[in-house]
Amino acid sequence: MGEAYRAVQWTRSKRVYDRWLWIGIAIYLALFIGLGAALYPAATAETLLIRALGTAALLLLHVVLSIGPLCRLDRRFLPLLYNRRHLGVSMFVLALAHGAFSIVQFHALGDVNPLVSVLSANPRLDSVAQFPFQPLGLGALAILFLMAATSHDFWLANLTAPVWKALHMGVYLAYALLVGHVALGVLQTETHPLLAGALGAGLLWLVALHVVAAWREREPGSGTAVDDGFVDVCAVEQIAEDRAHVTTLAGERVAVFRHAGGISALSNVCQHQNGPLGEGRIVDGLVTCPWHGFQYRPEDGCAPAPFTERLPTFRVRVRGGRVLVHPRPLPAGTRVEPAAIAGAAGA
After folding, report:
1. Is the entire prediction scored with pTM above 0.85?
2. Is residue 28 a part of any domain in this protein?
C-alpha cells in the first residue's frame, strides 16, 4: 500500500463470482416459472414472474444473513464475506424488480398514485387475517435501497465505518418486515404447508446460526479474568510470528499480533471494508489486511502517512507464557507499547 494506492473494485475473481451468481439466478427464475406454469396452468405469466423474483430475493437474503455467523464459526467461509456486497446488491435488484412488477400489476391502473395506493388500499389494521402486507414489503424495499445505494467505498469513507455499519445493520429490520410481508401475503392465500414450512425453516436457520455463533464467542478469550480487569486470551505459543490470534472481548473482535518479540492487540475490523485483519499478517512491520492491503502500525493502529485510517488499540500483558488483554478498547490511534515476550529475541 503506497501513495498511489487505489481501492480494489472489480477484480477477475469478482467478475467470475458475479457471472456465476447471475447465471444461477437466471436458472432459478427459469425453473420457478417453468415448474409454476406446469403445476398451476391457470396462473398468469406476470404472477409467476412476480413470485419467482420475490422468492429469489428472499432466498438470497437468507444467504446474505448467513455469511456473517458462518465466517465466525469457520474461517473457510471468509471468501463469501469478501463478495457479500455484490450478493446483497443482486438481492436488492431482484427485490426491486419484484416490487415494481407488483405495483404495476396491482396498483398502476387506477386513478390514485401507485405508491399512495400501496399504502392506503387496505386499511384493515385491526385484522390479522386481512392485515395490509404490501406496505411491509415497501418498507423493507426502502431499507434495502439505502443499503444498496451506500454499498460503495465512497459512502464507507464519508459516513465513517461505525455509521456505515449501523446503517447496514438495518438489514435485520428489512428481514423482519419481509417475513411479515410473506407470512401475511402469500401464506394467507396459499394454504400449501410447504410454503409455511419453508418460511419457518429459513427463520429458524438464521436464528439458530446467530445463536450458535454468539454462544461460541460468548466468553472473552479463555474466560479467565486476572488482575486489573485483564483477560487471559491464549498462550504465547498459540500465536505464530507476524500472525494473529483472534478473540472476542466485551462483544468486540480483537486481533492479537505477535511481532519482533512483542504482542500487540488491535480491533479486528479494517477501516476500508471491514475486512478481518486477524486473517492477515504483518508485512514490513505493518499489519496488512488480507482483502485489499490496507496497513496499520501494530503499536498504535494508525495507517502510515499519507493515509489517515486509525484503529482502536488494547492494553496487553504477558504473564507466565500467557497473553492478557484488557477488554476496554482505547481511542483509535492510541499508542500501546507491545508487551515483551520473555526470552524472545529483541525483547
Report:
1. no
2. yes
